[in-house]
């Protein structure tokens, strides 16, 4: 989605309510919310990796998460011992 684009799955009324709420939050509250969402995204990604690779060990899990986040080229540089 392009910066500034609006999601099609949310009504304008709800978007306006969410926007109004975010505008009342302090920077600390917004950062806390962002941190929570980031942790949720990571938990979902880890669950997906574990579903695709049952029995994956923690080191390979970290590699696969890194690869999905930053791309294969950087993952191979950072984890040369684990690249295929």
How are the elements arranged and paired?
Elements: H1 12-24, H2 27-52, H3 58-70, H4 72-78
Helix pairs in contact: 3-4
Protein model, in words:
This protein has 84 residues and is mostly helical. The relative contact order is 0.07. It has helices at residues 12-24, 27-52, 58-70, 72-78. Helix 3 (58-70) packs across helix 4. Helix content is 70%, strand content 0%. The chain has one domain.
Shape field = elongated
Count up the domains. 1
The helix/strand series, from N terminus to C terminus, equals: HHHH
- Which ranges are low-confidence, i.e. pLDDT below 50, for 5 or more consecutive residues? none
Helix content: over 70%
Distance between the termini: 32 Å
User: Would you count the extended β strands for me?
Assistant: 0
